[in-house]
Fold this sequence. Notes:
By secondary structure, this protein is an alpha/beta fold. The protein is built from 8 helices and 10 strands.
Amino acid sequence: MILPFRTPADVEAATPRVREHLLADRLLAYPTETVYGLGSAPRPAALAALAGLKGRPPQKPFLLLVSGRVMAEEWGLVFNASARALSDAFWPGPLTLVLPGGEGHLPEALRGAEGGIAVRHTSHAGIARLVAALEFPLTSTSANRPGGPTAPGAPAIADLFADAVAGGELLVLDGGVLGNVPPSTLVDCTTRVPRLVREGALPRAELRRAVGRLAP
């Protein structure tokens, strides 16, 4: 099924259906400020279903979208001085932080080789409102098959994952067609000195202008 997701009224109407769908360990396709994403509730069965749909190796974790630092901390994630400075400067926005913590709150399948969990506060207004209303983080990975281009809109996602949509496993939120936007910048904050993992929509120079020595 495809639901409209372009106006505040669309978001409000979709939220109860999305919550019910995700808590049944089913999957969601949705727009972000960068590309369309695929996601789930942060639960082991849902993560397994998402990895299966995406065709992604189980050892490669997904990131989380949160409604802000408060939600991330409520789910056990820890912000050091660099993570606090970077999140204050660039959240909501296309900055993903790899954070320690989450033990006992989040599935270990979300944890990467460096020991942290990747988290972003999206600046897409509709998804930010949705995550806040859900009161739990939403997992995120690009809406594509491994090695293929990201689907630019809801009809393309429905074609790409036709069986999952037809079977009710994948619910698609239609936020219109998205342009070719760089992915989020990824910074590892699991140690005292942050490390730039991927330079994306936010270049290193911009990070350093904003937070100085606390930037990678």
